[in-house]
Amino acid sequence: MIRVFVALIPPDEYKHALNSVIKSLSERFPTEVKWVDPTGIHLTLKFLGNIPNGDISVLTERIGYAIDQFQHSKFKLQLYRLGAFPNTSHPKILWAGLQGDMEKLQLLQQAVESQISSAGFPADQRPFNPHMTLGRARRQASEKTMTAIGQELGSITIGECGDWIVSDIHIVESVLKPTGAIYTSLETQRI
Does the reported pTM lie above 0.85? Predict the structure, then answer.
């Protein structure tokens, strides 16, 4: 079995900008949040969890169909703002949001979801909410501190970045370690 998801991987410029955000916040809140490794920042289109290794070829084929259905249409995104789930008053997951061709992003995600679920993989029950996770609140973090972190998110300016021309979809393996997840791109397909 292999733990996988389908994702868009932002350009290094975005990872560097978000690394600065993580560094700034982690200096003030080093133990309250489990921060992600900035090199692994991504935008998940479809999380599959544990699947048999042999299903990667089926997954690759289905993503190819999704890209064909999407008509091989590259599009642009930009870093937009920081936020939290469920909200900044009670943050559990800290994230960076995007703006730009959000309609095309939604259409791409729907094509991926449709093709993958038609191959027998479980369909997502939650609506697609595009974001790039920066960190998760630790269980021992006090609500007061997490509220302070949520308020801090609104005052942080993300460094200027150019357009992210979305041109690839990745099938990514996720190996969970005590120090954090390690991500490896197994397959990449051009949009």
Answer: yes
Q: Which residue carries 């190996």 as its tokens?
A: 175
The answer to whether the CB of 71 falls within 8 A of the CB of 174 is: no
Where do the domains of the chain lie? Answer: 2-190
CA 142 – CA 149 distance, rounded (Å) = 11
Buried-exposed string 95-126: b where 16+ CB fall within 10 A, e elsewhere:
bbebebbeebbebbbebbbebbeeeebeeeee
Residues in the chain: 191
pLDDT tens digit sequence for 77-94: 999 999 999 999 999 999
The string of pLDDT tens digits covering residues 27-75 is 999 899 999 999 999 999 999 999 999 999 999 999 999 999 988 889 9
Count of beta carbons in the 10 Å neighbourhood of residue 142:
10
- Superfamily, domain 2-190: Cyclic phosphodiesterase (3.90.1140.10)
